[in-house]
């Protein structure tokens, strides 16, 4: 009989002890204070005690109210996601432009005045040379003697001789022929003036014809085609330009007056 009555009493004592322990543990947990200064004590998403502190569970976590939503989350009860915003980059300030002094104006030299021309004429190569030759004929020398007499009273600065050829034969041949003819005229005139080194020569070959289309479609392009040779006669020429000044009445020097007409009886010639 004693054994039956003692066993239930022991069980009741054990239950009472467990309940007391749980109550003590719960009381201890609820008594833990919320983090000092936490904003959770001012928000409605958490259970708070009568003294206004957040109620903590036995695991040290804030007890959420039944109406808690993620928008109520606050640290340190619940982690609040925060975007890491980098600090604003410094704004580069462009330096103020440095005003450079205006460059000094470049002095432009005035163009040189045209050189005075005493006489400028074109002599037919047929008067000066035989066809395809560069040796001066007697008629050619006579015409150059006449030119030398016309400029003997002038102050000659330069005599320019330019030889030209027609298109018959090769371009290379015509270039060399025009150079040789200009050189022959230069050499002869150099002996007629005081300053021989002021006489120059150059050849233009067939590059500057004056006949244009007049002599096209006239048969074979060779020297035996007399009709074509006669048509191309104006292209075979030597141009002579005399630069300098001439004395006029009263002793004052006069600038050249440009192109002049070749004297009569000088043979085929044209002024330029």
Describe what this molecule looks like in 3D:
The structure is a single chain. The protein is α+β, with helices and mostly antiparallel strands and 272 residues long. The chain is 26% helix and 15% strand. The chain has helices spanning 2-30, 125-128, 138-150, 171-190, 226-231; strands spanning 117-124, 154-164, 199-203, 237-247, 253-255, 269-271. Strands 1, 2, 3, 4, 5 and 6 form a six-stranded mixed β-sheet that branches. A hairpin with a 5-residue loop joins strand 4 and strand 5 (253-255). The longest helix has 29 residues, at 2-30. The protein is rod-shaped, with a radius of gyration of 61 Å. It starts with a helix and ends with a strand.
